[in-house]
Structures are given as structure tokens and as C-alpha cells.
What does this fold into?
Amino acid sequence: MTTVGVIGGGQLGRMLALAGLPLGVACVVVEPSADAPAAAVADVIQAPFDDERAWAELARRCDVVTVELEHVPIGALAWLAERVPVRPPPAAVQAAQDRRAEKEAFAAAGIATARWAHPAATFAAGTVVKRRFGGYDGRGQVVLGRGVPVDGTLDGDCISEELVPFDRELSIVAARGVDGTVACYPVVENRHYQGMLRTTLAPAPALTPSLQSRAASIAVALAESLDYVGVLAVELFDVGGTLLANEMAPRVHNSGHWTIEGAATSQFEQHLRAVCGWPLGSTEHRPTAMVNLIGAPPDVEAVLAVPGAHLHLYGKAPRPARKIGHVTVPAERLLQLEAVLAT
Amino acid sequence: MTTVGVIGGGQLGRMLALAGLPLGVACVVVEPSADAPAAAVADVIQAPFDDERAWAELARRCDVVTVELEHVPIGALAWLAERVPVRPPPAAVQAAQDRRAEKEAFAAAGIATARWAHPAATFAAGTVVKRRFGGYDGRGQVVLGRGVPVDGTLDGDCISEELVPFDRELSIVAARGVDGTVACYPVVENRHYQGMLRTTLAPAPALTPSLQSRAASIAVALAESLDYVGVLAVELFDVGGTLLANEMAPRVHNSGHWTIEGAATSQFEQHLRAVCGWPLGSTEHRPTAMVNLIGAPPDVEAVLAVPGAHLHLYGKAPRPARKIGHVTVPAERLLQLEAVLAT
It folds into this structure.
């Protein structure tokens, strides 16, 4: 039995733990909330992320420690890394916490992004101002009207980016093993609704070998530059076929949930294989669509009546704008699923 | 949240519970042993199967009750069935406990079997004597030499069967919903080693539409005759293309484990869909092989290095002749997997 410590016990921790059991991997999660989705299938240390006793318990019980979210005290990861392997490395998690450090990580790996400024400044083509720390799911950012000054649009420390006229938002999920091997899933297209990911199409429509190869090069360059181990996601803007990196996630990612049924190895198993030092799995795949369930629970019977549909509920109480689950279907069934979810 | 009571907390209960969580199904298992494989993912009522307080707790907590093994006190199931839906029905479970009742159930459904006798008698072509109650995995049965009298070969109540010169052992796993809909997986071929299932090939090599259709007719006839709800397996002898029913299992079955990765819907999810009264899932599938891990644990890294391999450990301590897990691979990788497992 291998024990993996996971910082965070949300749906990502839950799906990691579900993937772990058949592999002989037990997950122990640190999670502040009392009703963590992961609790159904993992041991939970209920504690704030900055609780030193929780770190000590993780270090004592686990063979390796990983994260299911990036907003983790870096001091905790650094302390843990002196006692037990921490994968991905703390510096990679730190880069994803801080939009300035993230841009610098992309630059250090030779990866193109939109132009940016810190302290925030305006760009003639249009400007997006983003909170430097703590934003997610479209929160903590504002698009400025032309000529609006940056100051005072958001509280605290912000960076600004040039508004890019992108055609679509893509992402690539990759995994890097302890031995440096990298396995990439296909580039996917992500469609958002009210700032939250609603639908992922895998592979992205009209994905060419060239686009896949350029996206994979970005993931590989970033992973190598960060000496990364585990699953990593990079969000990309497709601007007339040119790829610009937008954000990175040092963890399994919502745009990779389709891999549970759509790929030979799910991103969750892949992450565990990587952090345990085991061989990476096959990323062979079939055309698949994933739709997030946001806010209200679906009609379970109607969803299950869609041929090939797979329901994933996270055990979370419904609440507006809360991701409570997702549904995966063969790509050709997406419209049928959307019709069911709309009723 | 739907709560399903499962009598038995072994690997089948564990895999049912794993399949349940994403569907919003919580499993509560009754299991006498302290280290039940299902405990990692289900609530366990640790009690003997004939413990009346355990039955009462199941009836109180569960929306529906099912079994992961057939050797369950029928009195308990009958008591439960007066209080909560029990699926499959107790009579179907009883038929699988008693080799005489099983043969009679096949006959009542118009399904051909080898000739049999109870009390046991000898057949000119050769005779297998089987314990009437409690045998499994090849235990509790003896093949008689010609002219050997039946008496005294096995303790207790036995039936005998004519030894059939079969070409191979097949099985079919089917599910019947509350509305009477039946969904069949493809016929598979099962290869045994020392009386235990070692390898399943899905679909069975050289499976013809005719053979599939005849096996499916057997499963449908049996399920309808028993007013069955849930997943059901029928073991078949292929005797020169003629099918004879050998045994039935009123539950998910080892020869259906390949469906976790090889079919659109796993037998575990399918069983839960059926007993919860939900629509059955697609049985679309790809050529897949499953190998049981018996006795000793495998070299995890070597198994995971086989492309497309999926490891399923049950959390059981290794012990000779004990099923501790299984591995599923794309059919074309079977030899590669066997080479790894042989070392």
C-alpha cells in the first residue's frame, strides 16, 4: 500500500482517491471543511492548510505529498519537502498562486503569452486587470473600457494583460514522471458560461497535428523548466492558430475530467502514477464531451438515459455557481445531453 | 443521495461502492469480517449475515437491498423484502445456493443443461459429483472415474451431472431493469487454473452473432423466469457450438470485471442502475482481456508499464489461492501482460 497525502479534499481530491484505491494507493487529505467531498473515499485530516500539526501528520503517514489546489501555504509545502517528496515541487505551485510569477514562469520556459504589466498598466488594444493573488473561475478580474485608468478597479495588488482577440480557449493536460517522461492528452476546447467552465470538447474541434504538437511543446517546456512531477494543465488562447499561454494549473484540471471515460488512463490515475514514480499510462482516447453541473442537481434518470453518459456527482450540496458534478458523453451525444440538462 | 444495502463486503461490494459514489449512490454493506475490502469506500455494518439487528439497520437505512454473494440466509432476504425492495428477488438468490434448485430454474426457463441427478447417480459417459450447497471456485466437486460408485465421494447432500465434453467455458453477463428491459454484454470465454477463473477474453474468440444471440436468449429467459432485477451471470459450456447452462450467479461476476474499462458501462454501475430503477447503460465494448491476480501481489510497476493495463487491487492480504485483484488490458496486450505476471 502506498499512501499519498493530498492537500485539499474537494472534488479533485475525491477523484484522486477514487482512482487510487484500485492501484493500492490510499489518499490522506488535509481539508479545513467538515463535509469534504473526498471524505467518502479518503482519510481526512480536518485542519486549516496552515496547521502545523496537520503537516506533521502528513509527513509521518505519507510516502509522497501532492496538492489538489494551488492556493496552499508555500511554507507548508517547503516544510514538507524537507521530510517527504512533494510532487509537484513547491516552486511550481507557487508560480500558479501569483499571476506575476506565472507569467515569469512562462517567459522563463520560452512560452508566448499576451503582453502584461506589473504594476498594472493599460494597453491600447484593451486591458484586462487581474488580481495578482487568489482569483479563480473568472473571479478577481475586470476588463477595462478603453481609456479607463487602472487604479482602483480592484483591491490590492494587480497585474494587467493586453486584451487578446482570441478565437477560442483551449487547454492541454500533460503529466511528467519522476524520470522526466512526459505524456500529453489531446488539446481540448473549453467553453465558459458566466466565467466558469461549462463544456470541454476533447479533442478540440479541428485539432491539427501541428496545433497538438505546438501545445504539447508548451506543456513539455513548462514542465521541464519547473522540474515538474505530476499532472499539469496549461490554458491557451487560440489566436488565429497562434497559441498564447494564459494560465497554468499545477494539478489535475477540470478540463481533464473527460479522461475518466474518454482516455485509456484518467488524469487522476496518471497523476498518481507520476507522483508515485510509476510508469505513465496510455493517453489513447475517443472523442468525448464533458459538461459541468453547476448550481442545481440534474435529473439523474434523464442523464443516465443518454447513451454512453457517465454521471459524476461530487457529494456537494447544491448552491448557485457551485460545481457539484459533471457528465461525460461520447462527443456525438453532446447535443442530446445538453437538451436533457436544459430542462 | 440513494442508499443501497449490500449483503457482503468483499471485492464485489467494494467495486459496487466505487461505482456508486459518482452516481450519488452510497453503499452500506453487511459483512462479518473486520477487514472487508468494501470498507475503504462503503459504510460497514460488521455482523454475521444472520444477525437480525444488522437486517433491521439495513431496512432502516437503505432504499434498496442487494447481494454481492449468493450464500446469504434466505430468511434474512425474505424478512428484508417485506420492508424494502430486495433486488434480485430472494428466490433467485436461493436458486443459486442450491445446485438442485439451480438446475430446476434452468429447466423451468426452458434452458438446456447437462443431464443431472439428485440424489446423485452415475452416468455412463462420466460423472461429476457436486456438493449441493456451498461449493464455489471449483471446490466441493469431484470427477468420478468410470464405474466408481457415487456414495461417500463427498460429504453431505450431493447432485451429480453427466460429464460433458465441452470445448470451452463461456459466460454471459446481463442486466434486467425494473421495467423488464434486458441489456447483455458480449459472451466471454473463461480460462481456469486450479479450479479458479484465471483469464477472461471479451468477447469470446470466434464469437458469432448466432452464438451471442443464443446465449443472450438464455440470459433473458432465465431473468424473466425469475422476475430478476440486477446483474446476472450465466456460465455456459460450449459443446461443439451447442450451449449448455452450467451455473448462474445472481450478482456481478468475476467474468464481468473487464467491463470496468472494456465496456461503456461497467457491470457494477449497471447493477446499481438496475436495482435503483434507473435506465440501463450502454454495453458497447472493445476487445479486452482480464487476468485475475491469485495469491501473490504483482509487480505494480511492471503491470502499469503494459500499455493500456488497468490494475485493480482489492485491499486483501495475499494468501495462496486467494483472489487479491485483477488486471484488465486491451485484448492484443494479453500475452505481454501474462509475461509480466509470470515473472
Remarks:
- Chain B has three domains: 2-86, 115-162, 168-342.
- Chain B touches chain A at residues 14, 18, 21-24, 26, 40-41, 261, 264, 273, 278-279, 281-282, 284, 300-301, 304-305, 307-313, 315, 325 (CB under 8 Å).
